[in-house]
Amino acid sequence: MSTTLISAFLALVVYLLALLWLGTQSLGGQTNSADSYFLADRRLRAGVLFFTLIATNFSAFFFLGFAGAGYRIGIAYYPMMAFGTGLAALSFGSLGCRVRRLSADHGLITPSELIGHLLPGEGLRLLVLAVMVLFTLPYLALQPLGAGYLLESLTGGAVPFEVGAVLLTVVIVLYVVGGGMRAVARTDVLQGILMFSLMLMAFAAVAKGVGGVELANRTLFVQRPELFSPAGLGHFFTPRMLASYLLLWPLCLPMFPQMLMRFFAAGDDRSLKQSMVLYPVVAGVLFICPVLIGMWGHLAFPDLLGRASDQIMPLMLSQYSPQWLTGIVMVGALAAFMSTLDSQLLALSSMLTRDIYKRYWRPQASLAEQVRVGQLVVIALAVAGLAIALRPPEAILSLATHAFSGLALLFPMLVGAVYGLRWSVVGAMLSVIAGEAVLLGFAMGVIPQAFQGGCLPLIPALVVACTVLGVDQLIARWSSSGLRA
């Protein structure tokens, strides 16, 4: 067995055992209340809150996808992601604080309960629930899919894809069912530290292997100067496309149910504001690492095409770093997969338990019963996600691709309501439905691509959604003026 495989196995075993240990440590503070299980008693303070926000949002795409994008697009990918993430973090201190207070004052646990409190109406509650589940479940299903393939690659095929996907899902279910949000947050601290430290180790090793950052960039600039173009290879980032991406992240990130629930779980406003400051700083430092590694990939592997470039991170590590480091760094990518999956499981479980089971099936369900049902729902969701991951239909892959845009379309309606704009229930529903219909029209080819105007499909869909809300406000003002007259 090679040094890489030995180090990978050892790192994997230690990592999984550490997750289970952290999960068991969360059992002692657990009470039979929905707040305790789903929101860790609303006591997440600055350090833990910051790490759980980071770990929840940084999936394995941070390790593998960023490097692949650096290879395909060039340095232009970095400012797009860094600035977009920085803009998104503003929501932690503004929207997050307001949402936290609303949630704590009125005992709200799920995003559907939040919108139901702000704009009472069963149809709107169910619509928000449906959109969040529809665009989160496929993304959830892809996590064991990616983790299984990564584990298979990590162990040189010793652990087959199916076995790896099942193993990692079982570990996640054990600590999520046992400890709820408290266990998820504690494991996120470990996973966040792993992601940070291992990415920096990978960058240092590869940079040394290519002769240092300055020499590698000078050599690459001579060979492929277009990699340093502000528009990227093939002029990928036109001004309109760049603006679209910079708008996408601030709109979609706070609309992920697992992110909203972290606002609910925050211990105080100060913790959210500290996370708001630290989040873009850490992202700005870390994001450059995989992008540069991907760009330097042209020096050693100049002929990768398409999605083959997503393997540039392990290829560069195997080329320029010690064998033992390659396996350990890929465990960091595995941690990124798992920290996203556990958060999605808990978020969807809380929504299905509170917004479906308790509200429509068992309104008299006790807090202890809600926790038990939530635990069963976590298991059911994990099994469903695993089943989809083992045989993913094309429709699931397509939904996952559009997940960010689909959730971003909730932003104008939900955030407007949080800040006091009282849409009519019909107007709010039509806004979401119309926006999603436009997005679906572009995805199916019913609406010609020319109507995108050189932007992401989200932009025209967002224009339609906001127009509906604007008309709704005008009608409300005309109606109130008529009543006064």
The arrangement of helices and strands along the chain is: HHHHHHHHHHHHHHHHHHHHH
How much of the sequence lies in strands comes to under 5%
Stretches where pLDDT is under 50 for at least 5 consecutive residues are none
Mean pLDDT: 87
Mass-distribution shape: globular
Write the SSE topology.
Elements: H1 3-25, H2 34-39, H3 46-57, H4 65-72, H5 77-93, H6 95-106, H7 111-118, H8 122-154, H9 161-209, H10 213-223, H11 239-252, H12 257-265, H13 269-300, H14 312-320, H15 323-361, H16 367-390, H17 394-401, H18 403-408, H19 411-418, H20 425-444, H21 458-484
Helix pairs in contact: 1-9, 1-15, 3-9, 3-12, 3-13, 3-15, 4-13, 5-6, 5-11, 5-13, 6-12, 7-8, 8-9, 8-15, 8-16, 8-17, 9-13, 9-14, 9-15, 9-16, 10-13, 13-14, 15-16, 20-21
Give a brief rundown of this model.
The chain has helices at 3-25, 34-39, 46-57, 65-72, 77-93, 95-106, 111-118, 122-154, 161-209, 213-223, 239-252, 257-265, 269-300, 312-320, 323-361, 367-390, 394-401, 403-408, 411-418, 425-444, 458-484. With 485 residues, it is mainly α.
Structure description:
By secondary structure, this protein is mainly α. Helix content is 77%, strand content 0%. The protein is built from 21 helices and no strands. It has helices at 3-25, 34-39, 46-57, 65-72, 77-93, 95-106, 111-118, 122-154, 161-209, 213-223, 239-252, 257-265, 269-300, 312-320, 323-361, 367-390, 394-401, 403-408, 411-418, 425-444, 458-484. α3 (46-57) runs antiparallel to α12. The chain is globular. The model has no long low-confidence stretch (mean pLDDT 87).
